[in-house]
Amino acid sequence: GTAPPVSRGGRRAATYAHRGSSGMAPENTAAAFELAIAEGADYIETDVQLSADGELVIVHDVTLARTTDARLAFADHAPWNVRDFTLAELKKLDAGGWYAAEFSGQHILTFDELLDLLGGRVGLNLELKSPAVNPGLAQAVVARLRRRRDWIEPGARPRPLIVGSFDEHALRDFHTWLPDVPVSLITYDVPAGGKLTDLAGWIFSVNPDIRRLRPEDAARVIEAGMALVPWTVDSPELWRWALDLGVDGMITNYPYALKDMLHGRGPVR
Ligand code: G3P
Ligand code: CA
Known about the structure:
Elements: E1 14-18, H1 30-38, E2 43-50, E3 56-58, H2 70-73, H3 87-90, H4 111-118, E4 123-128, H5 137-146, H6 149-152, E5 161-165, H7 168-177, E6 183-187, H8 193-200, E7 205-208, H9 215-223, E8 227-228, H10 236-244, E9 249-252, H11 255-263
Parallel strand pairs: 1-2, 1-9, 2-4, 4-5, 5-6, 6-7, 7-8
Antiparallel strand pairs: 2-3
Helix pairs in contact: 5-7
Bound molecules: SN-glycerol-3-phosphate and calcium ion (CA).
SN-glycerol-3-phosphate binds near residues 18 and 251.
Protein name: Glycerophosphodiester phosphodiesterase family protein
Organism: Micromonospora fulviviridis
């Protein structure tokens, strides 16, 4: 098969570093990704969008205002939509100083740079972010991955790749074009019964909001045969609760602490 193994709870639950180790370093930068890898994360979760000139770039928000110095560097470009800047302009921005001075000099990465940085060291859970404001995003990611056969050929893939989105239509397109890559549906609430059964025919994992995840909904995802990987799970209480629900993994801003809870001396169950 092409899908990663389903681990189903307990100490084998996978750790997904949300935007890298974003509790300790500026999200979605090389610093946050390197830290997550060093901390033993199983996957990097990150977000991809399109620049004005059609390049794939790693940014979460649809604007640059929160996580870069764009307001200073491009003072007359409000509201600083990612989509309005070329790659050359995006590369001029500082993407780390907003978090802490020691991280200034971090830059927005392209998707290719991300793949090169990760290498075979860690899995990747890539989110097609806001396809409605990034038309052509799924197609652009497919085109790029087809030139990165090291990431999409099951035999060649050193670590798992999962592609997710809140946008079911973009995800469906992606799956039609690259059916061998497992896909994850990111959602606030687990879909209702009939809908969930349909999704199980082509979706590998469901990423529900941990704050809204009811035990009966967790059980329905597991019963339907999909992996259950909630976001964003950031406290020991929530980690233990999620494990009791039988999760296959957790998306967290604190991969080191989660790994320590899972594999260190602390009790799991
Ligand atoms: O993967 C789930 C999670 O990343 C969705 O929320 O806003 O952090 O992309 P967000
Ligand atoms: Ca995300």
